[in-house]
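> example.struct
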């Protein structure tokens, strides 16, 4: 199949590209910065320069493809908002895919997105799921739990480098999966017609509290972590204050 992968330079997106190439698919990646994506070309994928914020680039990238796998999301380091990338950008992509006659659209959402309308990314993911379901496209929605790979930067590296690890008080235990396993689901769905117009929750068998993750990393690093605790109540109070000040302000965590 001819696949267009959006978010191909990301933690999950690159695993999807790797898996799709290994399965013999022709893979095109829509990338914002081709220079930073040469590894994808070296693996055997084609690169098309584009941006979810620029609809004409989406039309061009879709040409010659029958499948879209969307694993993109706003980068925390970008100046763009969640609304601009994960809502406006995705609406433009879904509309362009429909117009291009795409036969299968795989969307990576987040586990439990419908349960947290107060969290902007979760709310937008849920709205995008609904928009895609009503688009008339032949979709598969995957709703993964947390990524194990994300824990490397959050816990493992700070502990190895003797930096502080930030831990939220009262955080609920979370399930995690390896992105290679999620990529397998995304690519295998393409050859299973029973996954068409279906939504799947993807989660590992176990949940982990931040304390358990710190303990695990301490064991592997063979050193104690410096843990800095953040209060959920303080963060919520800060969010209310930001909301009441129209988002203009600086949130300080004591
Ligand atoms: N991380 C988690 O624990 C987790 C858990 C559940 C679900 N998810 C979902 O899984 C998916 C993949 O997450 P991830 O952590 O792998 O993402 P990531 O590593 O942050 O990568 C984001 C990708 O989106 C691309 N992107 C950002 N803005 C773009 C734009 N305007 N136009 C085109 N591409 C753009 C980035 O490209 P550049 O390289 O150019 O920045 C990058 O390839 C997302 O939908 C996310 O919501 C993540």
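> example.seq
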């Amino acid at each position: 199949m001819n696949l267009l992968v959006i978010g191909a330079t990301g933690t999950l997106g690159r695993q999807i590209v790797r898996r799709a190439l290994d399965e013999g698919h022709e893979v095109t990646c829509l990338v914002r910065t081709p220079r930073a994506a040469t590894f994808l070309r070296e693996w055997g994928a084609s690169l098309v320069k584009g941006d979810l914020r620029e609809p004409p680039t989406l039309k061009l990238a879709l040409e010659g493809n029958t499948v879209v796998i969307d694993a993109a999301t706003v980068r925390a380091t970008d100046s763009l908002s969640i609304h601009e990338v994960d809502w406006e950008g995705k609406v433009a992509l879904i509309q362009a895919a429909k117009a291009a006659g795409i036969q299968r659209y795989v969307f990576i959402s987040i586990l439990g997105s419908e349960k947290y309308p107060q969290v902007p990314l979760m709310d937008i993911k849920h709205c995008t799921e609904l928009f895609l379901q009503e688009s008339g496209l032949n979709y598969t929605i995957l709703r993964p739990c947390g990524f194990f790979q994300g824990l490397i930067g959050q816990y493992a590296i700070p502990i190895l480098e003797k930096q502080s690890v930030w831990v939220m008080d009262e955080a609920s235990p979370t399930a995690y999966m390896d992105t290679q396993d999620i990529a397998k689901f995304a690519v295998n769905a393409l050859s299973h017609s029973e996954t068409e117009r279906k939504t799947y929750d993807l989660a590992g068998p176990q949940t982990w509290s931040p304390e358990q993750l710190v303990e695990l990393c301490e064991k592997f690093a063979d050193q104690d972590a410096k843990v800095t605790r953040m209060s959920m109540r303080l963060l919520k109070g800060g969010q209310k204050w930001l909301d009441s000040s129209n988002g203009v302000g600086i949130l300080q965590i004591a």
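> remarks
The pocket of NAP is lined by residues 6-13, 32-33, 51-53, 71-75, 85, 89, 108, 110, 144, 146-147, 150 (CB under 6 Å).
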